[in-house]
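Is this the right way to post structure tokens for a design question? Let me know if I should format differently. Anyway, here goes:
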């Protein structure tokens, strides 16, 4: 194995990944090409120079690395593709057409919809909650949804899952590792504050752009069969998650349980209503983009984190907006010494600050391709960054820093 290359003390791995993210930001109409090019550059460099961390050099090292990552990648692929079909089932059920009659027709209607996404994400996967919110928003705002409000939907989904061990992959990992779900619940202190900070400005922004149409479409009849299908798919994912964690935790490391459960439910319910397979090509592009970034991020030399502290936890939230929060959480669990409620908030909510920083953001970008611009997301989604910082320090002030002993 050759000596790794560093430029001004920065490993070339990070520079290549940073250039990949820069390419995504600059060429948001060609994000998939930028991500695949970056992944190819990282893999080529690893093969030629550094090898793959503990997996060894050359092609054998790459094969072992991918064998280690395949369950995570397969779950993401199956969930994102499956929830794209779920979103279309939900849209075709005509429930979103009835939502304008239920929501207030001023800015408080936008706030109420964000709160709905927050609550849903506590029980469902945050990808599903974000897609439900994005689908409803398309209808109640007449197809004109502001990018700042879309960012708020993603942030609400990530905030809602931050304190629930079934609401986010990172909190599920903590649960599997032996951390009490009651410890993770503390994250809701920061998440609730963050919701209060971001919901009002995002909703006012949307109200000025395109207000809610109060009157629902006349003659709208709900397709209750599709409602049952949506519920069945979501229940299958939740049941698989809980059952695997309680009864077969080792299975989660060897098989994509959640994704397989979702697709089994999709195939079985297709006997009742045919899924709209036409959404697959576009969803596939967004999914391939995310998988390319996650794979490249998994190859970064982040084998060691700074010493556990509240400052490190705060920084990991910002890092999770560009790096996959799953390996970051795994490293933190291995290191130990964190306040897990605070860390659950930072790694769960922090990815909301950039559109590809979380699976929920990528899922929403499949519905709204215009969100694939880092600059626009940050400019119009500025309340998210403010909310992240305010929520963190309010929780730190109220609950303090209570690190857990390495376990």
């Amino acid at each position: 194995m050759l000596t790794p290359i560093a430029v001004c003390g920065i490993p070339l791995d990070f520079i290549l990944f940073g250039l990949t993210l820069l390419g995504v930001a600059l060429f948001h109409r060609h994000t998939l090409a930028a991500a695949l090019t970056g992944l190819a550059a990282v893999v080529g460099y690893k093969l030629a120079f550094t090898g793959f961390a503990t997996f060894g050099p050359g092609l054998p090292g790459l094969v072992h690395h991918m064998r280690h990552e395949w369950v995570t990648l397969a779950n993401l692929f199956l969930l994102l593709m499956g929830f794209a079909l779920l979103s279309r089932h939900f849209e075709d059920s005509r429930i979103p057409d009835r939502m304008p009659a239920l929501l207030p027709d001023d800015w408080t209607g936008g706030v109420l919809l964000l709160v709905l996404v927050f609550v849903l994400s506590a029980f469902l996967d945050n990808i599903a909650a974000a897609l439900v919110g994005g689908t409803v928003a398309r209808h109640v705002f007449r197809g004109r949804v502001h990018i700042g409000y879309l960012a708020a939907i993603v942030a609400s989904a990530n905030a809602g899952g931050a304190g629930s061990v079934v609401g986010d992959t990172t909190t599920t990992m903590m649960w599997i590792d032996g951390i009490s779900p009651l410890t993770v619940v503390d994250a809701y202190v920061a998440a609730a504050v963050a919701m209060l900070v971001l919901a009002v400005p995002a909703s006012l922004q949307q109200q000025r752009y395109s207000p809610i149409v109060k009157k629902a479409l006349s003659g709208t009849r709900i397709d209750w069969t599709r409602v049952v299908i949506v519920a069945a798919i979501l229940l299958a994912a939740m049941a698989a998650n809980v059952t695997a964690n309680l009864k077969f935790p080792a299975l989660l490391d060897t098989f994509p349980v959640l994704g397989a459960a979702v697709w089994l439910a999709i195939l079985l319910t297709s006997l009742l209503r045919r899924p709209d397979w036409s959404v697959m090509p576009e969803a596939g592009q967004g999914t391939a983009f995310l998988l390319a970034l996650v794979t490249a991020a998994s190859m970064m030399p982040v084998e060691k984190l700074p010493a556990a502290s509240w400052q490190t936890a705060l920084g990991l939230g910002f890092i999770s907006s560009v790096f996959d929060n799953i390996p970051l959480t795994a490293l933190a669990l291995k290191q130990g010494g964190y306040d897990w409620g605070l860390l659950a908030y930072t790694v769960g909510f922090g990815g909301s600050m950039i559109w590809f920083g979380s699976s929920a953001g990528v899922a929403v970008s499949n519905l709204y391709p215009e969100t694939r611009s880092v600059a626009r997301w940050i400019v119009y989604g500025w309340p998210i960054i403010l909310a992240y910082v305010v929520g963190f320090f309010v929780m730190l002030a109220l609950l303090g820093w209570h690190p857990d002993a390495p376990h």
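Format looks fine. Someone answered above. Worth noting: The CA atoms of residues 88 and 276 lie 7 Å apart. The chain has a mean pLDDT of 86.
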